[in-house]
Amino acid sequence: MTDLDWSGCLNTREIDGFPTRYGGVTRAGAVIRTDSPDQLDAAGLTALRAAGAGLVLDLRSDWEIEQRHPLDGDAAYRRIPWIDPERELDRVPADEPLMADIYRGSLDRNQGQIVQALRAIATAPAAAPVVVHCKSGKDRTGLLVALLLDLVGVPRQRIAADYAISEQRLGMLSRLAELPAGERAAAEMLWRTLPETILDSLQHVDTRYGGVRAYLATCGLTAEEVDQLAIRLVGHSIEA
């Protein structure tokens, strides 16, 4: 994992250097995860542009867009909302009291959107990095990155450790401490990135779908597209 200094963003890092059970490590220059580039200052925007991304994938929904994305109009920029607005109408929040519940429901409901996002990564220019972000870069981005890392065999404890870093980068514990005591428990459930939350999501993929490759196939990715995702991350396809 390589930290990147994109001034204005707090949660920017490459998903490189992670060992896999198939041998080798995830490649540098493949995928960068971050919080929303809307927050970048001039130096941060210069750093983003200098990364030379072949795809900047924005997972935010329509209702979150408060200003024009700094790369809107750039050929590399695509916004593919993670949340399916039609399926979201079926969601019963009371049935998802914990973040782990929300994640499981998200993986089930949003497959039509998830396949579009992953297909965009699979078909992005091979020689240039992909940048993926949502608002804070921890939940939707965290799920997408976890699926990618699990696909190429990164140990799940390492996946969970990378996921957990987001709450530190975003200063969530300090922000929670500043809240009135009566508001803290609800905010903690939504703001923190506990390792067990993402581990639960990956276990759900195993239990309900038979593993990450079967889940991606259920979403609609072809075997060739799955191979392209693996090649992006580790430089070669994986026979699992």
Strand content: 5-15%
CATH superfamily annotation: Protein tyrosine phosphatase superfamily
Write the element-wise H/E pattern from the N-terminal end onward. EEEHEEHHHEHHHHHHH
Average residue pLDDT: 96
The spatial strand order of the largest sheet comes to: 1-2-3-6-4-5
Q: Determine and state the CATH class.
A: Alpha Beta
Distance between the termini: 24 Å
Q: What structural class do the secondary elements suggest?
A: alpha/beta
What does the overall shape look like? globular
> How many alpha or pi helices?
11
Give the second-level CATH assignment, the architecture. Answer: Alpha-Beta Complex
Structure description:
This protein has 11 helices and 6 strands. It is α/β, with parallel strands linked by helices and 240 residues long. Strands 1-2-3-6-4-5 form a 6-stranded mixed beta sheet, covered by helices on one side. Helix 4 packs across helix 11 and helix 6 packs across helix 9. The chain is globular and about 50 Å long. The model has no long low-confidence stretch (mean pLDDT 96).
